Every structure is written in C-alpha cells, then in structure tokens.
Amino acid sequence: MPRIRDKAKKAEILSLEEAVKKYMHDGIVCAFSGFTGFNRNPVAFAWETVRQGFKDLHILDRHGSVCTWLLNAVNAIRIQETDWMGWGEMAGKLDVNLERNYKRGQMILEDYSHGAMALRFLAGAIGSPFIPYYAPLGSDLYNPDYDALGRAGMRNGDNPRIARKKFIQMEEPFYGDGEVVLLPAARPELAVIHVAQAGEKGTARWRGVGTIDKEIAFACDKVVIIAEEIVPEADLRKHPESNQIPYFVVDCVVEQPWGAYPSSVPFYYDYDAPFMRIMDAASRNEEELKKWLDEWVFSPKTWEDMIDKLGVKRLLDLRADSVTGYSTRILRGKKPAPRMKMPLSVARSGY
Amino acid sequence: MPKSVEEMMELIDRIPDEAAKPGEFILPELMAIAVAHEVRDDDIVFAGTGLPMVGIMTANMLNAPHALLIYESGICDGKTMHVPMSVCDQRAANMSSTLGGLVDTFGFYLQQGFVTLGFLGGAAIDKYGGVNVTSIGDYFHPSHRFTGSGGNSDIGTMARRTAFIILQEKRRFVERNEYTTTPGWWCWDFKTREWKPKKEVWKGTPFAHCGPCAVVTNMGVYRFDEQGIIYLDSYHPGVTVTQIQENCGFDLNVSRVTGETPHPTYRELFVLREFVDPELIFLPTKMDYPPAIQSLIDG
Fold first, then answer.
1. Which 69-98 residues of chain B touch chain A by CB within 8 A?
2. Which chain B residue has its CA at the smallest distance from A86's CA?
3. Which residues pair with A181 in a beta bridge?
4. Who contacts A337 (Cβ-Cβ below 8 Å, separation ≥6)?
5. Rounded (5°) CA angle B183-B188-B193
6. CB neighbours of A303 closer than 8 A, spacing ≥ 6?
7. Maximum CA extent, chain B
8. Which of A49, A67, A281, B89 has its CA 20 to 30 A from that of B37?
9. Residue to test with chain B: of A344, A346, A349, A351, most B Cβ within 10 A
10. Predicted model pTM
11. Which element (helix H / strand E) includes A231?
12. Containing H/E element for A189?
C-alpha cells in the first residue's frame, strides 16, 4: 500500500539466521521470489524459517515453490492465497503436504489465476488499491460462493493485508467494453527475493526470467534480498539497465551461495530435478517425510552444511554453463543431454 | 561412431515424411505430433508445461518454424536446444527475443490480444470445452484437490483459440464440471446465476469470440461445432468409436468423424526423438526405428 515515508531506508547486511529471526514472525503475510520450484526460490530462507519454528504464515504469492513445500511439510502455513498449489511441475506436480493439510482442515486456500495474481502484485507495486482484469469471467474463481477468506470471516477489515472482498465484477464504465473484474492489490508485509547479485547498498540483479519479483519487491513493506554473491555497487552500476531492484526498497541483504537449491539460479546453477523427485516421493508418506526433514533440514548445522552433504560431484554437475546459463551435465531424464550448438528451428529456418 | 549434431540435422530432410506404421511409435509420440499439427506458422503460442510444450517445440522445428512461443514466466520467442521441465526453465529462455515477467506475458501479450493459440492441460473437461484443474467434489471439502488455475483460465479464455491435452476417462469427460476453472463456450453468468453461452457472458469484451478449438486425448482428437459443443474429429490407431463413447460421460457427437488420427511420420518421429526430447524426460521410452530408417541414420 502507499506508505508515505519520512526518510529513506538503509539496507543492512545480515546472516541468514539473523535475517530470518529479525524479519519473520508468526502469522506474517509473506511473498517469495522465483517461479514454481524451478527458478530462484529463496529456499535457504524458508529452510531457516522451518528450523526457527515460525507458524501460522499467510503466503500471498503467485504459486507454490520449494519454499511452500518445506513450510507445508511442517504445517507452518495457515493461509495460502495463490493461483497454483503445485510446486515441482515435471518433478512432482501437486504439493502433497499441502493437499494433506488442506483436507484435514488445517489451512485455508484462496484460488486466483496466474494473470490475476500478477496484476494484483502490479497494483500493489504501483500503490493502486485495485486493478481491472478480464479473465476469467464465468469461472468458479469468481463464483461469489467460493470466497474462502470471506467464508472464514477474515474479510472484515481487521487485517489490513486481507482485502474486504475477493473481487468485484462490474460493467466497464469508460469505454463500454463489457464486464470486467476488479482485483484487490496484493499488500504482503515481507518479500523474500533470491537474486544472483546484490550490491552492498541493496541494488539487485538477476539473469533469466523476471516472473513478478520486481512487482513483489515494491508491493511489500519490507524486502529481504538473498544473493548468491554481494558485489561492489560500483560494478553493478557499470550496466544499470541490467539491474532490476533499486536499493531504496531493500531492507536487508543476505549473502547465501547455493541459497536457492534445489531450484536454479540462471548462470549460477541448475535445478536438481532428481532431488526434487526424492522430496516428492518422501512427502507421500508421513514417516518418510519426517526422516527426510530430519536428514536435510534439522540435522545440518548450517545451510553450508546442508549443501556440503550433496557432495562435490553433484555440485559440479549442477554448475551452470557460462554461455547458456544452465547445465548439460545433470541427468534430468533417462538419457544424458546432447551437445547442441544452435536450436534446430533457428538452424533450419532462421528467426 | 555416433553422429555429430550437425550430421543429425542434415539427416532430417533425408528421412521420409511418410506415415509410420502401427507399432512403430508410442501413444505420447502420437499425441505430441497431434499437438504440433494444431500450430500454424503465423501463430503466437502460449503453452503450459508438459506435452503441450513438447508438441509446440516439435511444431517449431518442423511445420511452424516461425511460430512465436511464449512461456508464462516472461519468455518471448524462446528458441530451445534442450527440452525445459518448467515454463521458467533457462532452457526455454534460450535465444529469446526479450525476457520479462508475468505482467509482460499475461498483460502486454495476452490481455492485449496478441496470443493466437493457447495450448494447455486439464484434469477434466465438459462438453462445451470448459476445463477443471481445481477440485472434484465439494469445493471446500474436495475428494481430489488439484493444483488450481495457474495460467490455464487466463490463457484458455483470452487466446484467440485454445487447445487442450487431457487424459480421457468417463469421469474426466463430463456433461458439466463440478468446478469450472477455465470456461468453455458455455459458462456461468454469476450476476444472474444462469448457465449461458460464453459469447453472452463476455459480450462487449474483446474476448467474446475466443475459446477452445481442439482437444487431444489418449483416444482421439476433438473439435467444437457452431454451438460450441464438442464432437469427435478423429480416433487414434487401435481405438474404436465405441470405446471412445464408453469413455465419455455424455452423449458424444460422432457424426462428423473424419477417420483415424494421422500417424506421425518418420521425419516427425526423428525430430521428436533426437532433437525435442532425447533425454527422455516426457517420453517414457525410445523405440527402435524400422530397419529401413535405421540404415538411413547409420548410413
């Protein structure tokens, strides 16, 4: 929401443990960066959140991820307001932990669509209270009876981060373009954004897709940046057009190499699909899940300790090629990846 | 001595573009190629993860090399060398025109009206092409809870035409969905609580004439008539019209059947197996080529 400030923020550099302790709290409304379980998930932050035992979280985000998988594995999410409840796409589509918690009545799910969540964050980012969108009229997403937060009595205005209505359908008043849906701006408290590089002042840069991370950074009150590396601001300013998040929205920077594992950071490392398949398999049995959590979340002393368990061979296989930004050494399917120099469609027909 | 990528590329035009025989290909290959055939060279395609993505990549390498592929995480015209496992995969972003985010893909491209073809999956579909990817049973106490919309409902209602890939079973091909995530040619008007043609609910919007055009299943290919009702267009090899009717939860129109779904050609299979998914991520297995084709490849 628009928040008139009296003075500029100054970003602090903290350790992972300190940042989670300072910026998380029970019941927080929070958004994570990246895309599904594959790209720039701030996994280390969610992992540390699980270890510190925060509960009753309200995740307001575009979709599930490795972060929500971890949090749902310990039943830490009370409300998930999103558009896609999966996490692993081709490596474990549905979040089985989420489905289990939901069917037991332990959490509330509020459904939107992908475009709707993107525009809700855009509205939040530019300080607008709502935004009109066409899609999808006639969908049960906009069935007035299917308002989960309203049904739970949570749209009464007590929580300033929960809109008083899920949506409003109205006649488009300016051009006569039929019916349109008004969507409330997304206004979470905390954005946790994993990037490739951050300057010591907070300027942040990633390569690859942007998803809605810039919108999230501006829509939230507080922004924690988890960076693969902290670099001199001076270096980032040689090519400012490549930077996405200006330092003045950033509250905290954490340097955490391999902090998005098992999701990818383009040009740093690839996603680990085999590891995600093991996570998915573990989540299908509560005993197995508990063992997995003990081994990979609660036993390691630090995130570095966790990454160390993976072994050098695995990390070398995941390391991204400097040209393509991904790895052709990791075995994703049943056969190794072929060496390619040019996409076939371009080689045969140009652009 | 295995052939280099360049040698394999040169081979493509020498592999005959004639239909493979039954038993020389597997069902996922037939379905992926059926998807590819829906893509035109002048399409702007917005596709979801899975077989839709494999199909449109194949089209981009064969029958529709100039089709522009949009992936929802922000990728415009990705030219992939390795099959992505997600629509945010850096592999999908390879050599793209521009990279942005969801506001670009859903706002600037989709709601602005540029997308001519959507290609999506679904858990269940109704006779008007409405798709359910959300839940089965009471919405708040479902017997099955799926992932929910993602981009399905946005793309499926705002792309000029949309095709779906769905696993066909009686409970997945239904008269009316328990939950409509993506409206088809008929949908609810929640203002009057009436079930109406989409054209009326969306009247006056730029998207009233946008909607489903085709459905590819494991049993056949379907299209929609002038009233927006699904009909059987072709049946896959080895499947009978009776079997299809038995796996459909409503009275299916089979009067417009054109025949068997075209088999993939040897050239299409070669491209799909060697260039689209040689890592066997989507395809469960790689079959042997018939001897005549294998000797061309070895030669």
1. 72-75, 77, 79-82, 85-91, 93-95
2. B147
3. A133, A169
4. A328, A329, B82, B278, B279
5. 170
6. A16, A44, A47, A48, A256, A258, A259
7. 69
8. B89
9. A344
10. 0.97
11. strand A222-231
12. none
Chain-centre distance for alpha carbon B160: 15
Instruction: Please determine, for residue B92, whether its predicted confidence score (pLDDT) is greater than 70.
Output: yes
Annotation says B72 is catalytic:
yes
* Three-state SS at A71: helix
Other beta carbons less than 10 A from residue A1's beta carbon:
12
- The Cα diameter of chain A in Å comes to 62
pLDDT band for position B1 (50/70/90)? low
Residue A25 makes CB contacts below 8 A (sequence gap 6+) with: A54
Catalytic residue among B72, B175, B194, B246: B72
Q: What is the distance in angstroms between the Cα of A181 and the nearest Cα belonging to chain B?
A: 11
Q: Are strands A252-255 and A222-231 parallel, antiparallel or unpaired?
A: parallel
Is the ipTM value over 0.90, yes or no?
A: yes
pLDDT in tens, A52-92: 999 999 999 989 999 999 999 999 999 999 999 999 888 88
The minimal CB distance from A135 to the residues B74, B90, B154 is found for B154
Mean pLDDT to the nearest integer, A130-145: 96
Of the candidates A326, A135, A189, A223, the one whose C-alpha atom is nearest the C-alpha of residue B78 is A326
B101 touches chain A (CB under 8 A): yes
CA distance A180 to chain B (A): 8
Angle of helix A96-103 relative to helix A66-73, nearest 10 degrees? 40
